[in-house]
Amino acid sequence: MATATNLVPHRIFLAGRWVDSPDVLTIANPARPGEPAGLTYQATAEQYEEAVRAAVAAFEVTRKLPAYERAAILRSISAGIRARREELGRLIALESGKPIRDALVEVDRATLTFRLGAEEAERIGGEVMPLDLMASSKGRVGITRRFAAGPVAAISPFNFPLNLAAHKLAPAIAAGCSIVLKPPSKDPLTMLTVAEIVEEAGVPAGAVSILPMSRELGDRLVADDRFKVLTFTGSPAVGWDMKARAGRKRIVLELGGNAGAIVDRTANLEWAVRRIVVGAFSYSGQVCISVQRIFVHDDVFDAFLATFAAAASALRLGDPLEPETDLGPMVDEKAALRTQAWVDEAVAMGGRVVLGGKAEGTFFAPTILVDTPVEAKVCSQEAFAPLVVLFRFSDFADAVRQVNDSSFGLQAGVFTNDLGNAFRAFDEIEVGGVILNDVPTYRIDHMPYGGVKDSGLGREGLRYAIEDMTEIRILVVAQPG
């Protein structure tokens, strides 16, 4: 068994330099809690200050980089990630507990994210506006252009240690911004490895820092006025508190959810079951758009539940490094114990466990609950766990109302072949995205992605993130006469 004493800590990436610090950070292996996945360092206060000063200075370079240079850097990063696919996939599985099949998909998505960033860098544009809308404005025209907003502070989460960080790094580079990224403390080794690729791609000196840091330094990052944009993905409580402390900088918050899926009586049940099993239990439900609440029409409820439970019970729990594994561990034992407490509360309130419901160390089996009061935490809060709660409905409008009965609004899935119900869902469900005939867990990396209510502020997806990292400036041209 590996021990912390025979592992070499990975250095951290400070403004183009590889450095260490006195603060060694041990990375746990969720599948084998007594066996570290690796070691690295947390930045010191002095190193943080150096990174910020470097980002401010580098911005004077990055904001002037022509589009072809920004695009070339991003394409180089994309190619570098693709070339190290197996290595990065194994590292994600090792330090986050994500099954290797899913980890490799995440690497592929990050490859796409950086490639899309390159394409967006080449087409950041503006428009020509007629201004002669009244007599006093005769002979004038407007030209708009986007300019990089300034240094970016970025904080990324543990559940997609590569691709959600890529959704901050790629648009920053594309927009011409410098960036200081705080990767997740639970699994920072993935992005520190990507930092090697970033360095090889030739980013300007000081333009990118990837620094694990303490919560105290993270708070300093949030409040630091030298940053002009803050982009954060994580829990709602933390995100909204950050907004209160962030000052005048632009804020993008990608927060949590308790995503709902509606299964109408006209739905293709076989397809709905197959997709909801994936949407509910992939990466042990530790996805902010994981299916948590399922609303099934009375006419098909019993058939859906039986088929769904059978499909979920066939999922294989095990070592995330094994290709046959469907579900690995939760990120740590604390997460598994919290899930157990929530299931126990639901049962105490009258809920019934159809499948699963028991923690074993860091592992939690796929869990299905019915007859659960909506006041239970498993219904009203974000579970971030491999559990779902089923509800009946007889009228589609009532299903929409139940989906909306939530403080969250990230994405929703609607399985129906009724065109009227499809458009009613799009018109009335209060979320950032409605996914028709698929799970709310669906995302491809160029689409606008974000939520309403407690689920966040702003949108990711390359073009949309670039909009938040740039400022529109207008040039008004008057023709004398």
Give a structural overview.
This protein has helices at 45-62, 67-83, 85-96, 100-121, 163-175, 189-201, 215-223, 236-245, 269-281, 301-313, 333-348, 377-380, 396-404, 419-428, 462-468, and strands at 12-14, 17-19, 24-27, 38-41, 128-130, 140-148, 152-155, 179-182, 208-210, 229-233, 250-254, 260-263, 293-297, 352-355, 359-360, 363-364, 367-370, 387-393, 408-409, 411-415, 433-436, 452-453, 456-457, 470-478. It contains 15 helices and 24 strands. It is globular. The protein has two domains: 4-255 and 456-473, 3-Layer(aba) Sandwich (Aldehyde Dehydrogenase, Chain A, domain 1); 260-444, Aldehyde Dehydrogenase, Chain A, domain 2 (3-Layer(aba) Sandwich), CATH 3.40.309.10. Strands 14-17-18-13-12-20-21 form a seven-stranded mixed sheet, with helices on both faces. The protein has a six-stranded mixed sheet with strand order 9-8-7-10-11-23, sandwiched between helices. It has a three-stranded antiparallel sheet with strand order 5-6-24. Helix 3 (85-96) runs antiparallel to helix 6, helix 4 (100-121) packs parallel to helix 5 and helix 9 crosses helix 10. The N and C termini lie far apart (83 Å). The protein is of the alpha/beta class. Helix 8 (236-245) links the parallel strand 10 (229-233) and strand 11 (250-254).
Quick overview:
This protein is an alpha/beta fold. The protein has helices at residues 45-62, 67-83, 85-96, 100-121, 163-175, 189-201, 215-223, 236-245, 269-281, 301-313, 333-348, 377-380, 396-404, 419-428, 462-468, and strands at residues 12-14, 17-19, 24-27, 38-41, 128-130, 140-148, 152-155, 179-182, 208-210, 229-233, 250-254, 260-263, 293-297, 352-355, 359-360, 363-364, 367-370, 387-393, 408-409, 411-415, 433-436, 452-453, 456-457, 470-478.
